[in-house]
Design goal:
This protein is 14% helix and 48% strand. By secondary structure, it is mainly beta. It has two domains: 2-244, Beta Barrel (Porin); 267-379, 2-Layer Sandwich (60s Ribosomal Protein L30, Chain: A), CATH 3.30.1330.60. Strands 1, 2, 3, 4, 5, 6, 7, 8, 9, 10, 11 and 12 form a twelve-stranded antiparallel sheet that branches. It has a four-stranded mixed sheet with strand order 13-16-14-15. It is rod-shaped, with a radius of gyration of 49 Å. Residues 3-22 and 52-59 have low confidence and may be disordered.
């Protein structure tokens, strides 16, 4: 009954919700824990006899020792390999009360306790449930271990109703092994720290003890002998705390991406002029009006008006180049004035005159080219 209750309690602990799933361990970690220890009934064979039945035969007598309440505690140091696999070395201590003994032949009362202690090497595996499509806040784990435990009876005494007694004591060691099933829960805000719940079954090979007895002896004469116990099975239900040293803090949440507004390309309008003229033709006025209207429909920060001429000139030589430079500025001013008449603020307009520089169509010297006699309206 006590075993069924303890198993039920462990099931409830493993099913309890947690804040976040335990992360895969990479590197060193430490683990401590403790809990309830339930030891199965043990059989002991006495040699030459317990003398509890009032005889002095050499055939030996078997008795059952029933354990009551107990506790366990352990500390471990381990290493996680980053793929769910872990290995650790642990030290463990187990304690259990003994309150009943049967097959004594003479009624009596039994009391005492035993304890076991030693070390084991464990190999464990953390199960990532996300690989099965389960997004749950828990990381189950399973493991096995092997090592060496000493068992000490301290002492276990049976007092018979006839005034005799039988006392078992001594310390002996033997091979031990265990199976582990558990789950880990991350503690929010503390990277690497996790609460663990476990069920462990520890098996220990038979151990020997010494006994002394006055039962069946005249005048309370003392009899001594040995007792051989069968396997000792511990069922343990543990709550622990584990800390992984190399666990990095979770990455910060991704920052929202701020969309950078796209910059519209500059819009360019071309206004052409007759040779050696700076006045606007009717077609030129239409183009300027289109540019003025467009400047009110798009986000315009600056309007650039650039005047040009071809490389022909009404005057030869350097004087002609100087003349064309002035002509390009007059053409730019004509366009600016028309833009202002169409509602564009004069302060938003920058004018430049480039004369014969930057021809739209490359030509030979002193060539009249209509496309080079132009003003460019650029909306930035």
């Amino acid at each position: 009954m006590r075993l069924r209750k303890a198993l039920f309690a462990t099931t409830l602990m493993a099913a309890a919700p947690a804040a976040a799933s335990a992360s895969t361990i990479t590197g060193p970690y430490v683990n401590i824990g403790g809990g309830y220890n339930l030891v199965q009934t043990q059989h002991g064979r006495f040699a030459p006899t317990t003398f509890a039945d009032g005889t002095d035969n050499a055939g030996g007598t078997k008795s059952k020792f029933r354990h009551k309440d107990g506790f366990t505690g352990f500390g471990a140091f381990g290493w996680g390999f980053g793929n769910g696999l872990r290995a650790e070395v642990e030290g463990v201590y187990n304690y259990s009360q003994i309150n009943h003994r049967s097959y004594t032949g003479v009624n009596g009362h039994t009391g005492g306790h035993d304890e076991s202690y030693g070390g084991l090497v464990n190999v464990l595996y953390d199960i990532d449930l996300k690989q099965f499509g389960l997004d749950v806040p828990v990381t189950p784990f399973v493991g096995v271990g092997a090592g060496y435990l000493w068992q000490r009876y301290s002492p276990v005494t049976t007092n018979y109703v006839n005034g005799a007694y039988n006392r078992v004591g001594g310390t002996n060691g033997g091979f031990a092994y265990q199976g582990i099933v558990g789950a880990a829960y991350d503690i929010p805000g503390v990277p690497g720290l996790a609460i663990t719940t476990e069920y462990r079954m520890i098996g220990q090979t038979f151990t020997d003890g010494a006994y002394q007895s006055t039962s069946g002896r005249a005048n309370g004469q003392l009899a001594k002998g040995n007792v051989n116990f069968d396997h000792r099975f511990n069922h343990q239900f543990i709550l622990g705390l584990r800390y992984a040293f190399d666990t990095a803090p979770p990455p910060p949440p991704p920052q929202p991406v701020t969309a950078v507004p796209s910059v519209a390309p500059a819009r360019t309008y071309l206004v052409f002029f007759d040779w050696d003229k700076s006045n606007l033709t009717p077609r030129a006025r239409q183009i300027v009006a289109e540019a003025a209207q467009a400047s009110t429909h798009v986000q315009t920060t600056r309007i650039e008006v650039n005047g040009y001429t071809d490389n022909s000139a009404a005057h030869p030589g350097a004087r002609g180049q100087k003349y064309n430079q002035g002509l390009s500025i007059r053409r730019a001013n004509s366009v600016k004035a028309e833009l202002v008449r169409d509602g564009v603020p004069a302060t938003a307009i920058d004018i430049h005159g480039y004369g014969e520089a930057h021809p739209l169509v490359p030509t030979g010297p002193n060539t009249r080219e209509p496309q080079n006699r132009r003003v460019e309206i650029i909306l930035h």
